[in-house]
Amino acid sequence: MRRILLLSLTFLLLTTLWPAGKGSAARAQDASNPEPDSGAVICPLSSFEDARADCLPLGPVQFLAGMAAQGIPYPIQPLPAYAPGADLNYVPYSYFKVTETGAQIFATLDDAIADQPTGWAIQPGRMLYVSYQDRVANDKGVFYMQRAGGWIYGEGARAALPYPFQGLQFSSTPRNPFGWVLEESQSRSAPGYNSPFTGHKFHRFNIVQVYSVQIIDNMEWNLVAPDEWLEARQVARLDLQTVPPAGVTGGRWIDVNLFEQTLAVYDNNRLVFATVIASGVEPFWTQPGLFQIYKKLDSTTMSGSFEADRSDYYYLEDVPWTMYYDNARAFHGVFWHANFGYPQSHGCVNMSIGDARWIYDWAIVGDWVYVHDPSGRTPTDSARYGAGAP
Question: Which of 170, 172, 206, 266 is the most buried (most CB within 10 A)?
Answer without folding.
Answer: 266
